[in-house]
């Protein structure tokens, strides 16, 4: 039983005499007619012959300079002219049959010649001329008409300059005026079998009419035939014999308006190069070349490059056994979703795979598993930018001849599986950006790669944010000179490079920059002796908390950006040699590090932590405090002054030394029973004197009677009361024979006397909250009651003093 200080209140009561109340143009050209022979019909009338001969005479007069290459025709024309002239000056018919026949021949030839001249000599024509015996003119509609004839060797001078006769730099250039090409007769290629650059650079050309009149049976080259014809929308080779063509390189290069091309039945069996054939056909959406016999082709470089709208290709049946280069073959085919089943292509002659599939962003799979790449030397950019590619298996590839793998998988951001374990890399000199941006690649089994010939590893693993492990500690890096951004932005948390030799390295800038997860780094074998570029070597790798440095390592200055350790407990912003050695700020370590005496492991220095808790009897935390300091330093804790509680126990480890493990110090407090507030006056009111015994209720009190127990829940406490004196009249000084009671909620009364404290309220604690025990005492009901016997009261003011006392019994005490 514990008792608490007494509180006193004045009881007042009065009697009076009365009662007182209260968020592209069709070219219409006349076909250039060959001169008519003597076998022509003689059925023409005299008038017609005369007219024709006059026209012919005029035409011959204007054509004295024509070539004599067509001997037979010229002779016949001369004969016809003489005969016609005779007929024109005579009024009777000739009796010479041969002469008549000759006249008839002249008539037919003259009509044809006149028709041709009418179009070719139209004053509105833009230009005219000849290539070999092929006469041409360009009409006002922009139609280039080609008459029957043979190109001879006239194309060569233009071909040597890789230009079209109509887009020449040293003669009139019609490149922007020719909208359509029309073959008006059979055009042959007898001496020079090349049609290289024939229509190249005709930027307004939209179509070709009667292309089948171009006799291509003995043509060997179509190189750059339509190169740069950016307005060309259609061209039809279905009526042409391409069986002797060996060169189709650049044939449609940069024909940016070409949407479709009928290629299904082309005979390409003699072609050896298709390099750049469709390069830059950015509007081409479909292309059927599935049945092409490409067994003689050696060069497919850039063939489909930049065909950015091409959706699919079926090349599975192609014989590529003689192909030596596929450099940039599908480069920039951004919409290409399939190239067919190419897994079993026979690629035994292949030597160059540089950028073959670069930026094929829609390809999700590529059949290359069984390719023979034993002669390939370059795989530069091979799969770079294949952003939809999810997996590749190259374990069967024989890469013994490869010397460059730079950018091989660069930007393959969807790649999750990459089997490259068995690649032979002993001749590879560059691994720059080989895995750059492979942001979903979680693992790489490349620990057995022979990198002894590699001289650059710039950005090799840059941006491999999902990469969690990389076992490459034993790589022979003795020839490496560049390590800039090698691991920048990768997701590795631990990186062991303890076997790497960096004696020749000159560049270590941003090597480990922005490795958000990196905590442990072993570069104990690294030498910085030849390093001249080192800015931001460790920058923004803010979690790097352990680095192992060797005797040949030296910091080159603050620009290496060694991270500053955390200041969040248990760390306090310093590096520490080992776990108990000297401590340094990042700047201090960079400045002080000397490999000859300081080589070893450096960790973030840890603080010791002391957690101080203040508990009550129920084990509840009343307050907490945390102390931090260098491990080994002394600490001191203190008790707290806590309202309603008394310190009951000071812990033995209130003072001590910081250690690796957190220390807990517990202060124990005992609760208190407190009379928080009490009235100073209880007023029973003013009443008229009664002849009967009366019991009066409280009418007022000037404060609440409030109790708080902070003891253990379940403790009992009691409120006790006693009168220090009976009620005495102020004026009469006469005692009032009145009795004071406490009445509980059930109506049971307990008398409060002057003879000792009487328990009036006893209760069990269920919380630490304050309790207002007098909240219902005014008026009838529970509370203090005053009984005045009949005849004992006089007119006066009566008062008495009541004392309150608290006592408690602690649970289980």
From TrEMBL:
SUPFAM superfamilies (UniProt xref): L domain-like
Q: Where is the MucBP domain?
A: 609-670
The family database entries (Gene3D superfamilies) matched by this protein are listed as: Putative peptidoglycan bound protein (lpxtg motif) (3.10.20.320), Ribonuclease Inhibitor (3.80.10.10)
Q: Which Pfam families does the UniProt entry name for this protein?
A: DUF285 (PF03382), MucBP (PF06458)
Superkingdom per UniProt? Bacteria
Q: Does the keyword Calcium apply?
A: no
Q: Which InterPro entries match?
A: DUF285, Liste_lipo_26, LRR_dom_sf, MucBP_dom, Surface_bspA-like
Residue ranges of region Disordered?
A: 58-106
Which residue windows does the record flag with biased composition (Low complexity)? 69-106
The alphabetical list of record keywords is: Repeat, Signal
* Cleaved signal peptide residues: 1-25
Against NCBIfam families, the record matches this protein to: Liste_lipo_26
Which protein, by its recorded name, is this? Cell surface protein [Lactobacillus paraplantarum]
The taxonomic lineage of its organism, from the top, reads: Bacteria, Bacillati, Bacillota, Bacilli, Lactobacillales
């Amino acid at each position: 039983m514990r008792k608490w200080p007494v509180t006193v209140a004045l009881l007042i009561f009065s009697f009076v005499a009365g009662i007182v109340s209260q968020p592209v143009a069709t070219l219409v050209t006349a076909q250039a007619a060959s001169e008519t022979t003597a076998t022509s019909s003689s059925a023409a009338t005299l008038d017609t012959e005369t007219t024709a001969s006059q026209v012919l005479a005029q035409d011959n007069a204007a054509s004295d300079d024509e070539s004599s290459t067509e001997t037979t025709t010229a002779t016949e024309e001369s004969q016809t002219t003489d005969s016609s002239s005779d007929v024109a000056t005579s009024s009777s018919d000739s009796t010479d049959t041969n002469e008549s026949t000759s006249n008839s021949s002249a008539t037919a030839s003259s009509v044809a010649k006149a028709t041709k001249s009418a179009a070719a000599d139209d004053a509105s024509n833009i230009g005219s001329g000849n290539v070999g015996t092929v006469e041409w003119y360009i009409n006002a509609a922009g139609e280039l008409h080609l008459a029957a004839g043979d190109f001879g060797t006239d194309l060569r001078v233009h071909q040597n300059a890789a230009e079209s006769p109509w887009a020449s730099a040293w003669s009139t250039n019609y490149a922007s005026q020719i909208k359509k090409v029309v073959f008006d007769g059979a055009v042959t290629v007898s001496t020079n079998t090349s049609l290289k650059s024939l229509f190249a650079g005709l930027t307004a050309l939209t179509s070709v009419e009667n292309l089948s009149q171009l006799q291509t049976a003995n043509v060997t080259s179509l190189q750059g035939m339509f190169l740069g014809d950016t307005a060309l929308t259609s061209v039809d080779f279905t009526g042409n014999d391409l069986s002797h063509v060996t060169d189709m390189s650049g044939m449609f290069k940069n024909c940016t308006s070409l949407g479709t091309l009928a290629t299904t039945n082309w005979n390409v069996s003699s072609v050896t190069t298709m390099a750049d054939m469709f390069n830059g056909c950015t509007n081409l959406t479909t292309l059927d070349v599935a049945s092409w016999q490409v067994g003689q082709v050696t060069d497919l470089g850039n063939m489909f490059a930049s065909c950015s709208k091409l959706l699919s290709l079926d090349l599975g049946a192609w014989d590529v056994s003689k192909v030596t280069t596929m450099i940039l073959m599908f480069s920039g085919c951004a919409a290409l979703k399939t190239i067919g089943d190419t897994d079993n292509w026979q690629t035994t002659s292949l030597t160059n795979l540089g950028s073959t599939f670069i930026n094929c962003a829609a390809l999700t799979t590529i059949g290359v598993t069984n390719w023979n790449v034993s002669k390939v030397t370059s795989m530069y950019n091979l799969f770079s930018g294949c952003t939809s590619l999810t997996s590749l298996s190259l374990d069967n590839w024989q890469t013994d001849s490869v010397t460059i793998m730079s950018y091989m998988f660069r930007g393959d951001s969807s790649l999750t599986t990459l089997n490259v374990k068995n690649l032979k890399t002993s001749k590879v000199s560059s691994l720059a950006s080989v895995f750059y941006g492979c942001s979903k690649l979680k693992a790489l089994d490349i620990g057995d790669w022979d990198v002894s010939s590699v001289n650059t590893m710039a950005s090799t693993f840059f941006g491999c944010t999902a990469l969690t492990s990389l076992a490459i500690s034993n790589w022979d890096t003795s020839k490496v000179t560049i390590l800039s951004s090698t691991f920048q932005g990768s997701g590795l948390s631990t990186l062991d490079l303890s076997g790497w030799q960096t004696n020749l390295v000159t560049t270590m800038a941003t090597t480990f920059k922005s490795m958000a997860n990196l905590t442990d780094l072993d570069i104990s074998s690294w030498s910085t002796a030849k390093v001249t570029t080192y800015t931001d070597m460790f920058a923004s790798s803010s979690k790097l908390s352990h680095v192992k440095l060797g005797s040949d390592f030296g910091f080159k200055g603050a620009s290496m950006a060694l991270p500053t350790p955390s200041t969040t407990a248990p760390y306090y912003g310093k590096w520490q040699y080992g776990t108990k050695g000297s401590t340094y700020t990042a700047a201090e370590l960079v400045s002080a590090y000397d490999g000859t005496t300081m080589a070893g492991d450096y960790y973030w220095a840890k603080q010791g932590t002391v957690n101080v808790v203040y508990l009550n009897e129920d084990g509840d935390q009343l307050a907490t405090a945390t102390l931090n300091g260098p491990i080994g330093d002394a600490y001191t804790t203190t008790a707290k002054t806590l309202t309603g509680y008394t310190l009951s126990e000071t812990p033995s480890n209130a003072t001590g030394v910081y250690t690796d493990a957190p220390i807990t110090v517990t202060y124990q407090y005992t609760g208190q029973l407190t009379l928080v507030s009490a009235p100073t006056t209880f007023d029973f009111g003013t009443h008229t004197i009664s002849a009967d015994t009366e019991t009066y209720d409280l009418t007022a009190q000037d404060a609440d009677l409030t109790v708080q127990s902070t003891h253990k829940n379940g403790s009992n406490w009691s409120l006790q009361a006693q009168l220090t004196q009976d009620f005495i009249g102020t004026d009469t000084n006469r005692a009032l024979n009145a009795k004071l009671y406490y009445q509980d909620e059930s109506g049971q009364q307990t008398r409060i006397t002057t003879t000792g404290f009487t328990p009036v309220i006893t209760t069990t604690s269920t919380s630490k909250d304050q309790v207002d025990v007098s909240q219902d005492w005014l008026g009838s009901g529970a509370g203090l009651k005053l009984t005045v016997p009949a005849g004992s009261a006089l007119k006066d003011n009566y008062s008495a003093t009541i004392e309150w006392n608290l006592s408690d019994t602690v649970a289980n005490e």
